[in-house]
Design brief:
By secondary structure, the protein is mostly helical. It is built from 27 helices and six strands. It is globular, with a radius of gyration of 25 Å. It starts with a helix and ends with a helix.
Length: about 550
Amino acid sequence: MRLLSVGFLVAFVLSCASGPHPTAVVASEPVSAGPAFDEARAVHVLRRMAFGPSRQALADLRRQGVEEWMASQLSRPGAPLPAGLEAKLHALPTLTMSMAELVREYPPKRQREEALKDGREPQRPALIGMEQSAAKLLRAVESPNQLEEVLADFWFNHFNVSSDKGAVRWMVTAYERDAIRPHVFGNFRELLGATARHPAMLFYLDNWRSVRDGMPERVSREALSEDDDAPEPAELKPGLNENYARELLELHTLGVEGGYTQQDVREVARCFTGWSIRKPRQAPAFYFRRRAHDPDDKWVLGQRIPGQRSVADGDQVLDLLARHPSTARHVARKLARRFVSDTPPPALVERVAKVFLDSDGDLPTVYRALFQSPEFWAPEARAAKVKTPFEFVVSALRATEAEVTVRPRLVQSLAKMGEPLFRAPAPTGFPEGAAPWVNSGSLVARLNFSLELVSGRMPGTEVALKTLATPAEPTERAWVEALGQALLGAPPSEETRATILDALSKRAEAASAVGETRPVDVSLIAGLLLGSPEFQKQ
């Protein structure tokens, strides 16, 4: 098996590296659904607006029609979940706990040791990340609100924080639940404001300890310690901190080429002095520290921000940025990159940016403009992107109709592929483009995951392959064709078909050499199909 896997991997790497990654998408007229069901068109929609096709999802599109299904996805934020999925999520208690409850029930090492001395047995904080990752996987696999899950993944990545940074571990569950998810079908300004005020963002980008220039060290220490939850000594570096201001301009709003200067970064940082956290290690909550705020006038992007001793300075900056043309283009470009192409056509970006501005950042209106564009439907857009590890794992679980009860091994598989959930190492989040994911280490991990999944060796997952397809005859070639259609949404390519049949032939020769006759290895066929270049594309 090892030699066959490595041989297949070579073809896989070369194909992914040299496969279709168009530098531009040529516009064409949207394809009419017509009287007959266009399965290729439905598969394209499910690869972009959902986490890949499944037999149930395709049946839903056949019943509703592609356009009606798309419309329903755009109009069902917070729609009820299936009872089975609700039960699985209910079994993860950390999902509904406040940040204060998480700190108390899953304390850091020092507090845990103190609790043990008192005879109490607190839980380890690693369980918080495990349950949040489990919930993300379960929702992506089983929720009928697929677009909502895709958007929650997109916007968390856009406003990234990492649970690997100190106290963020106890904040990130609430950040996704309270700052991201409620706003993915809302208004961009509301989403921007929710992330700006959340303790996870304030801690992750150090704004919680940013104070006005010239504030005496003794006074700044008192200002940051006035709630009896003093920062660690290493965090008590008095002065203006520009981290959040820089990422707000570069990543969250205007974009790296959005027309701002280093002086703008500094002025924005001055506007956000005092935006802090009360009790960051006990009961984190947004708190405006008036004494730490710079009360003088500021100038941002040529506009005067009248100095006030309130949060109004920061809110005025958010208002300005949310309505800026550069923000519209930056957000439009990122959405087009996620849903159309790694290099989206400039004309598409400009049209979607105009909709963003005309609608005052109404996100459902922006999404509709993107999904109704000819570029979204262009033949060149189909299978033009490479799945991220998360998209790959979820699409494999959906395609195989796996029964999933998330175990640590499943979450760790994503980390091996380079995408540890909620732990992106930089404020930029995980990359959307293909290049970072097309490397031998990640691809070996993908193929190993595929083979473990379909052979029943991935804890917490059960796959019944023979219920997915009914071949015309019980031959290897027939199984390749039948499972290829079921898992890929289309017949496998000649290259993939030949590679799989060659692998099966070599295994048969090895078995024959020792006097064995083996039945068709359906698991190997399925595993190699999931590891094929076609399945990596979306």
